[in-house]
C-alpha cells in the first residue's frame, strides 16, 4: 500500500458508459412497471409516466454531465455536496450511503441474484441459510475481483450490461413478433383502483424515477476515467439516453403482451410477459436474466461505492487507511473491503427482510441528496462565479432547476405513500446518527466554507483528492 499512490485512469468512455447503464438497469425494470401501471390507471398514462420520467432523467443527465466535468476526481459527488453546502453535508451523505444505501443494496441484490440462479438451475429457491451463505460468498467474490484491478470490475460491468440490454430487447422482440389476437387472449381481468389522471401520473413517477436512478455513480469513478472532462459528460448523456430508449420500448412490450390490466396485476412481470409466447422455457430464461442483471448491479455497487469512502478519507474526514491505494493493483482495497464487510454484517444481523426495510426508508433520504446534487450547480455558480467550468450544458440554469424541482416533487410523492413514510423514520435516524458522528469529530468544521478559489479546482499534477 502507498498513501500517495494515485488511482489509475484506465476507464474509457465506453467503460464509463457501461457503468452508467449498469448502475441504472437493475432488477427493478423486471417488476416496477406493474406498480407504475396500477398507479397510472391506463395504458396511455403508464407510458406517459415513463416518458415524463425519462425526460426528467435526461434533465438530470445534462445537469450531472456538467458537474462531472467540474469535479473529475474520485468521489466527485462528495466534493460537490461539500463545496456547495458545507463539510457536514458531504460527510453525512457518504456515511449514510456507505453504511446503508450501498451496503444494503449490495446485500439485497446478492440475495436476488442467488434466488434467481437457484430458480434457473433447480426450479426453486434454496433454504434461507444456504441462500445467505451463497450471497455472502458472492459479495466476497465480486469484492475480490474489483480489488484485483479496476479493469476487472469494468470487464464484468461491460459484459453484464450487454446481457441486460439484450434481454430487454428480446422482450420487445417477442412483443413485435407475437400475433395481436394471441396477446389479447392472455390479458387478465385485473382492474386496479383508478386515481385522477394527474394524481395517477404523479404517484407513478415515484417508482419510475427510482428505476431510472443510478447514473450519479459514474461521478464516483472520476479519478479513474481517461480524459474525464470529455468522457464523463459523454458517458452520462449517452448512458441515460440508451436506458430511456430501452425502458420505453420494454414497457411498450409489457403492455402489448399482457395488456394494461395484466401488467398492473402481475407479480412476476417479465416472466409472465415471456410466458405468453414461450410458456415452457420463458420463466427460467427470465430467472437467468434477472440473476445476470442483479450480478451487474452488485458489481456496480462494489466498483463505484468504495470511491466515496476513499474520497472522504483523502479529505481527512475518515480513517486514513481508507484513503490508501494498492501500490500494484491501483485500487482502493481498504475501502472496497469496508463496503463489502458492511453489506455482509447487515445481511447477517438484519436478515433479508430487515435490510429491505432499511433500504425502503433510505431510498427517500437518498432522493434528498440526489436533489441537492442536482441543485449544487446553481449553488456553486453563485458561490464561485469565476470558477473554471470545462463543460457548459445548454439550458443553464433552467435545466438543473427543473431537475431539482422534479426530484423534490418525487420526494413529496414518496412521503405521501404511508408505507414509505413509515420506513423513512429509519432513514431519518440514520442521517441523525451520521450527523451526530460528524459533530463529535468535526464540530468546528460545521460552518460552510468561505467563498474563494473553488475547492473543486484540481491541483496541478494531482489525480486524486488532496488530504
Automatic annotation (TrEMBL):
UniProt superkingdom: Bacteria
Membrane association type: Multi-pass membrane protein
Signal sequence range: none
Location in the cell: Membrane
UniProtKB keywords: Membrane, Transmembrane, Transmembrane helix
Transmembrane segments: 16-33, 45-65, 129-149, 161-179, 199-220, 232-254, 285-310, 331-352, 358-381, 393-416, 422-440
GO cellular component: membrane
Listed InterPro entries: AA/rel_permease1, AminoAcid_Transporter
MF GO annotations: L-amino acid transmembrane transporter activity
Cross-referenced Gene3D superfamilies: Amino acid/polyamine transporter I
Pfam families in the cross-refs: AA_permease_2 (PF13520)
Main location: membrane
The name this protein goes by in its record: Serine/threonine exchanger SteT
Source species: Enhygromyxa salina
Higher taxonomy: Bacteria, Pseudomonadati, Myxococcota, Polyangia, Nannocystales
Gene: steT_2
